# Entry
Amino acid sequence: MSQTIYHVNAFTGRPFAGNPAGVCLLPEPATEAWMQTVAAELNFSETAFLVRRPDGEFHLRWFSPAAEVELCGHGTLSSAHVLWETGVLQPADMAHFHTLSGLLTASKADGWIELDFPATPAKAAEPPAELAEALGAVPCYVGMNVFDYLVEVESEAIVRSLRPNFTALGRLPVRGVMVTARSAAPEFDFVSRFFAPALGVNEDPVTGSSHCCLGPYWADRLGKTEMIAHQVSARGGVVRVRLAGERVLLGGQAVTVLVGELLDG
# Structure
């Protein structure tokens, strides 16, 4: 038995940038142990597994190399991209995904894919003493949402220069740490980086789910409901962010760079 694997770069319009994800369109549900093993073998920050339901919608799960995750933007974007690219869905169709974070949808327009995700705003939090030390930067603000710490620092230059202690970050009782600042470039509203060593991902290249928190945070500070974000990892990526009540609409592009067969012996 073999399984087709799609290697997609998400939140970018060009190959070898953005965030790589694996996508598996499964003919039937697979065991959690098998999916975790495949995700560890592929070693992407996340691999997405889809199964079509009788109603034409999809079950979707995401696994990092170390654990299942509850919400993943680039894995969802990559999944939607593959469904349209392979003709499983037509360009005018909306993709419906049933996930651990509820029903998520994706639509396609003008070469961009827009995801409809739940907002996950942060509340101000007293940071553990080791957070600043692990990041190597002094926070202007620290918040926490259901998944992560949110840390604002003084400038984009600080965000770009971070060299965290990943062992120390991995001991914090959260999925990850997002670090953000206003953008120094006029074409972007804010920048960020995302570190998740507890999930086996020291730095995630572009993190859709973090923008479900960053969007509401920067909307309050900038007085805007539509923004363009730049995640300034080494690979880099662009996320369009639009607030809609308790939802955050995330826009991105995606490129398939490799299609292969997993030989499951």
